[in-house]
Design a protein that fits this description.
Structural class: mainly beta
CATH class of the largest domain: Mainly Beta
CATH architecture of the largest domain: Roll
Distance between the termini: 28 Å
Oligomer: single chain
Shape: elongated
Strand content: over 45%
Largest sheet: 13 strands, antiparallel
């Protein structure tokens, strides 16, 4: 999604030429206070449609290869406001229930369609001064699901686009870097020139237009956005009821995702509702309505299932298939570590590799890059899995490298191997993330795995 999420791209179907305007072009003299009347427990019906077209930029043998990409996404949800704040700072919270969340991503030789699992259709949203956090009170999201719901210019934050003071027709105002970071999902802004102004107003509505350029970073990767937007403020409800955005973005190639040069269009429609049964007090009773350390972690599992583990949001999947998964740890734009996960051939119970054999396999696979073993251990964890952990170090092209290697096996003979690779100078930044991921690892129950494999 050409918002923060590095793995997908989004926006809308209709061009900004079709943007709605106010009922008449009558302009009222004087200044006008456009203050949102959003209140705690207010419920809205929100529909967002996005479309993105452009090219991906991928490094290939000392050159940049470009390939076309087309993305269409639609989300439809009820949103209940839980906390409100006045002005462009302070915390905001809401809870959403998604009736629809789907995308279609088309590449030259590939097409896929991420969706939101039914058991994850309840999504909490928390907005700080300059960042937005989404989570599900019912359990961890996976990366595809997070990217699908974490769209730019989320409905909860649109009120921050309103002027903080009364303004006259064509009187410009600017936005803080914190507001632009939150709206566009950036982690840093180097410069921005976005200005807005009130273009028309009548008894029913007011129309705001905005335009400018933003230069900053997303997950440490440099990006440049040229934006044009329109926002309609309903004077009866004193709420934004429509927002349209056109973005041209040129993002550099990153360590975990390709770069891109795209044009994205977005439309958001917001209608007030009296209530939503899916967001009633009874429906939310007993659920955590604020994020916590466990809920903001993501879940990773191969397409065919069989096992799963939790990970920090700084880990990004970069590829894989039914047996292999590859993830990269990106911290403040730095490529800190690589994690390779492989499903090994099932062996007869009691015939799993020993610690000594696992060490021999590691030494053989590293070849001339192997230097020495730092530590080696074996234990049974709280799931009664046998966990072997071996740490080795060596050199690759004169660069000091450390490998954290794990073999996880359960009594029936199923087994999975993890290899975490990092530069010697970056080991401290990896910290205990590898051990936390291993501690969260679970094999699917045999009956669950059989059900997955028999499903069409």
């Amino acid at each position: 999604m050409f918002k923060p999420a590095p793995t997908f791209l989004f926006a809308i179907i209709a061009g900004l030429a079709c943007l709605p305007g106010t009922a008449t072009s009558a302009q009222t003299k004087g200044t006008h206070a456009l203050v949102s009347a959003r209140a705690k427990d207010a419920v809205d019906r929100v529909a967002t449609v996005l479309e993105v077209q452009g090219v991906l930029k991928s490094p290939q043998e000392n050159k940049v290869e470009q390939s076309k990409i087309d993305v269409k996404a639609t989300v439809l949800y009820d949103e209940r406001t839980l906390d409100v704040s006045k002005g462009a700072t302070g915390s905001l919270r809401s809870m959403r229930h998604y009736d629809r969340a789907e995308a279609k991503i088309t590449l030259p030789k590939k097409e896929y369609a991420p969706t939101l699992r039914p058991e994850r259709r309840l999504i909490g949203v928390e907005v700080g001064d300059d960042e937005v956090t989404l989570f599900s009170p019912r359990g961890q999201l996976n990366r595809d699901e997070l990217d699908l719901v974490d769209l730019l210019a989320g409905s909860l934050i649109l009120d921050r686009l309103l002027p903080e003071r009364p303004v006259a027709i064509n009187e410009p105002w600017t936005y803080s870097n914190e507001t632009m970071k939150a709206v566009f999902g950036l982690d840093r802004i180097a410069s921005q020139t976005v200005k807005a102004n009130l273009t028309t107003i009548d008894a029913k509505s007011a129309m705001i237009e905005m335009a400018g350029r933003i230069e900053g970073t997303v997950n440490g990767v440099k990006t440049r956005l040229d934006i044009k937007g329109k926002c309609r403020f309903d004077r009866k409800t004193r709420r934004i009821d429509w927002f349209g955005l056109l973005v041209k973005e040129d993002r550099d190639i990153g360590p975990a995702a390709p770069g891109f040069d795209v044009v994205a269009r977005l439309q958001v429609q917001i209608l007030p509702r009296n209530e939503s049964k899916s967001l009633s007090n009874a429906a939310l009773a007993g659920l955590p309505l604020r994020s916590n350390e466990a809920l903001v972690r993501l879940i990773h599992e191969p397409r065919e299932g069989g096992w799963r583990f939790e990970h920090d949001r700084r880990w990004f999947p970069t590829g894989g298939d039914d047996r292999f998964s590859y993830l990269r740890l990106i911290d403040q734009g730095d490529f800190v570590a690589q994690c390779n996960v492989v499903t090994l051939k099932q062996v007869e119970p009691g015939k799993q590799a020993t610690l000594e054999q696992f060490q021999r396999d590691i030494k053989e696979s590293l070849g001339d890059n192997f230097g020495e073993f730092v530590s080696a251990s074996e234990r049974a964890n709280d799931q009664d899995y046998r966990v072997i952990r071996v740490v080795a170090r060596g050199e690759v092209e004169k660069l000091p490298i450390v490998w954290h290697c794990y073999l996880i096996a359960e009594q029936s003979g199923r087994q999975v191997a993890f290899t975490f690779t990092t530069e010697g100078t970056l080991v401290e930044r990896l910290g205990e993330m590898d051990q936390q991921m291993i501690a969260s690892f679970r094999f699917d129950r045999p009956e669950v795995e059989m059900t997955r494999k028999s499903s069409p």
